[in-house]
Write a structure and sequence with these properties.
171 residues; Glutaredoxin; 5-stranded mixed β-sheet; 5 strands; transmembrane; PedC-like; Thioredoxin-like_sf; Thiol reductase thioredoxin
Length: 171
């Protein structure tokens, strides 16, 4: 009787180990497929981002062609001392900047204002850090209205101002 119980317990243990092992083999066999699926999703996301960057760059170039936007490097921006100007700090790989530019474009096309654009991905320029600190740029997109002679700097706040009215206002 004891021997029979012992054989039964051993049989149950062997059965559980075999079934458990089979489950783990089956599970771990599926992992490469899961990882492959994740990698294909990553590739698709990367391709989508590259397409969004391309569209953003085309919109910037289009606004520049229409003389609505002036692309500045940090040295040019550092030397800029005009009054009542708008500075747009953004970058092409920022999804919020892409959305902001989509809103900004029709407004610029229906006004006589120009915007000076600074690409924050352009970190190799001479005065990059000074400009970022001077204008308090902590995030992008940031739109700033400047009046150098009065020392005024007003940062666009979407909760306070509408974009069109901010652009049309003088300092």
């Amino acid at each position: 009787m004891r021997r029979r119980r012992f054989v039964f317990v051993i049989f149950c243990l062997v059965f559980l180990i075999t079934m458990g092992g089979g489950y783990f083999i089956f599970y771990f066999e599926k992992i490469p497929n899961i990882l492959q699926h994740t990698n294909s999703e990553k590739i698709e996301l990367k391709q989508n981002m590259q397409e969004e960057v391309k569209i953003y760059d085309e919109k910037i170039a289009n606004l520049e062609d229409k003389n609505k936007l002036i692309i500045m490097n940090s040295h040019e921006l550092y030397l800029l001392n005009q009054d009542n100007i708008l500075l747009y700090f953004g970058r092409n790989d920022c999804s919020v900047c892409q959305g902001f530019l989509q809103t900004l474009t029709p407004i610029l096309e229906h006004t006589d204002r120009k915007i000076y654009y600074f690409d924050t991905n352009d970190k190799d320029n001479l005065h990059y850090e000074e400009l970022i600190n001077e204008y308090g740029i902590t995030q992008v997109p940031t739109l700033v209205r400047l009046n150098h002679s009065e020392g005024k700097k007003i940062v666009f706040n979407p909760e306070k101002d509408g974009l069109a009215s901010f652009i049309k206002k003088g300092v």
